[in-house]
Protein 1
Amino acid sequence: MKIRQAEVIVTSPDRNFVTLKITTEDGLTGLGDATLNGRELAVVSYLRDHVVPLLIGRDASRIEDTWQFLYRSAYWRRGPVTMASIAAVDVALWDIKAKAAGMPLYQLLGGASRTGLLAYGHASGRTNEEIFDSIRAHQEQGYKAIRVQAAVPGLKSIYGIASNATFEANKGVRYDHEPAQRGALPNEEDWDTHSYLRHIPTVFEAVRNEFGPELPLLHDAHHRMTPIQAAKLAKSLEPYDLFWLEDCTPAENQEALRLVRQHSVTPLAIGEIFNTIWDYQLLIREQLIDYVRSAVTHTGGITHLKKVLEYAAQYQIKSGMHGPTDISPVGMAAAMHLGLAIHNFGIQEYMKHGARTDEVFEQSFTWNDGMLHPGDQPGIGVELNVDEAGKYPYVQAYLPYNRLADGTVHDW
Ligand code: GCO
Ligand code: MG
């Protein structure tokens, strides 16, 4: 089963997506997601200029060997661009292998360990009333677990909160469709940790009072706090029994979470910007986290993320795979197959893509009463409509960034 062709397809239906399509000599095709929000074209070049020439003529069935070859032969290993590129090849080869076997991918990964995947959505609001409405709107869509992000009094704009216009247009059902600014330079937002630390516990107190003790609630701090600030937040949120507190400290500093752990039993999740098992080494071995946030798309594909999750399982740490709209339907499908098969699945992040995206990527996964299932088509169950994809050329887009009141650049 030799690889005949490998194409890198860039399309921007609602936002930019980078997809690798591999075709074998006997006509089987496989897709892999290589979308790296705001830095998409770096991955396109890595794939087109450096990886595609290595793929032509290789045996498509040798997935582990191809993974090791791409990782080790580059010499310059790790990093988001390299690992997203390897991930795209890896998922496309798993898609082909599963199609060749006539099975949905999760069967090749060991078969289903559960009937469906619990997913969480993103509620947000500028006031507690808006947050309540947004939570209710998610519940009406079936969501059984909900991430809550709140505007902070005194700050103009903040990660995870819809702009006024988007909020009105969508009645709080989703925040800005994706945070990257299309066709513009990075948006500057403001930040003040003390105001945030004062405000957030009051929001969770109000949400618990309104919705009761059962609803699983999550919160994303997006890497903006120092270890002691994060410990303070984790401790102050304890009475509201969060499912998790995500990215409470800068991702580069694994030791930071020791301090948070010493002060709180709020479950911790981290890893959406990690890309190898080495980023988790200390976190897993010392049991400093409860959930692994990596996406298949950014962590070397099914082959590598499965190893990370199996390592995590030995320490009772579960999956909580990244699933915002900047993971394409191809990346989401891969995550669902992996999540269905592994034993230590925790939860899946799931934001619905826009209508144009759903026309470009024909998908077979299902969303039923708050649970995802990848479907039973052979492969990963996603096909790219090339004609539709061709209608939407790449649009330059950047993620926002933060400045403190005195002008200092801060984590966003
Ligand atoms: C999440 C993430 C995303 C990221 C985005 C950046 O928890 O879903 O924090 O919203 O900000 O993926 O591209
Ligand atoms: Mg996050």
Protein 2
Amino acid sequence: MTFDYAPAPESRSVVDIAPSYGLFIDGEFAPASDGKVFKTVSPSSEEVLSEVAQAGSDDVDRAVKAARKAFEKWSALPGAERAKYLFRIARIIQERSRELAVLESLDNGKPICESRDADLPLVAAHFFYYAGWADKLDHAGYGPNPRPLGVAGQVIPWNFPLLMLAWKIAPALATGNTVVLKPAETTPLSALFFADICRQAGLPKGVVNIITGDGSTGASLVAHPDVNKVAFTGSTEVGKAIARTVAGTDKKVTLELGGKAANIVFDDAPIDQAVEGIVNGIFFNQGHVCCAGSRLLVQESVQDELLDALKRRMATLRVGDPLDKNTDIGAINSAEQLARITALVEAGEAEGAERWAPACELPSAGYWFAPTLFTGVTQAHRIAREEIFGPVLSVLTFRTPEEAVEKANNTPYGLSAGIWTEKGSRMLWMANKLRAGVIWSNTFNKFDPASPFGGYKESGSGREGGRHGLEAYLNV
Ligand code: TAP
């Protein structure tokens, strides 16, 4: 693709990145007790952004102790006082959103127009929303005097680093719990920036602790005997391991896991609008989205028309520098994720599906994958069954609404679905039949802090967001 006009990229000098970061425990940054560190790199340039402390089990223990100590006073504060801290955090996030958006795009690879216009506003909105609940818990419909659980151990993935942090920390603090959170290994920087925001907001020490590390850090946090609540977002495989770890303990647990959503287009749908929804559904955030519309189910009679329009639209997508405001598709988050996407795409071809991608020049350094479409896909193909977590769409067809429902539900997952039709009665009929936690109609990937989010089947258990999201952090 060539462009006549390339706007200046958002400058990385907008945000200061320290050469190294410690763990944030009890209100202070400190090295890991054994001095171990790891590097975090920018997936769009492979440049090392910073060196970050790798928490071992001693550090996890220190963080949990700090959170336990802070819990006594924090949980005893009137809700209105806790709300003041949360409102303050929300406002600082808004004030510093430019720095945070650039940092998120550098560390994660997502386009700046998404981190600036989607991630950051949603992060602030989440803190504002739960700040509003903090003094109204007695009126949340749980009966009198709902009590916090204690210390929450929270483990999050790399696809929406700051937004997943907000989904975890905001309801936990609003309900009077204290937190130890582990961000993903490839995207620790915005969580560490958030630690600084907690200090700026004057949040009491130990209420929020951020421990960076890998899967083993997450595993020791989840297994720590003094953690009362486990909240996890990530792969179904790790979610199952966590469920085994907490089985038989009194830990409360919520799991937000993978997905393989169907985006279902009927022949009466407005085609141009559906194409925008399909593109947003699968190419937003490079397809690193648990609720991505990764299976397009199109009614046979409009298949040709829809696919022609979709290909024309895909050819206009700009892949490249995440800090360029005109970029639609940024970098794949890591070499490992790129290898996983590549392997599944090769499996798609080997199993006989037809691969198509627009002509697209990819930068030489960094991790990239062109927006890709597969037709001739059957239910048996791996690309129709497994979560690819990349910018790859598998197209299947159907003739009747019953067949659409059968195909959409034919997956071990059940996180989300999309329905494109003019008929209100059909939307409601489908919504009742689809086994998915979130269903969008004539839109896709719409999020609101007031709306509960979570899955059926292997997409997890429990809900985050809305009033439902409070319950996960309360003894009711
Ligand atoms: P995971 O490998 O599951 O990693 C998620 C988090 O768990 C990371 O912080 C990871 O640390 C940590 N972890 C790894 N092994 C662990 C263990 N044994 N015990 C405790 N923690 C452990 O997933 P990912 O690759 O980061 O993210 C992609 C997956 O997350 C996709 O399947 C996607 O669908 C799912 N996801 C779901 C949702 C929702 S809301 N349902 C949202 C986003 C993503 P390291 O990073 O250091 O490995």
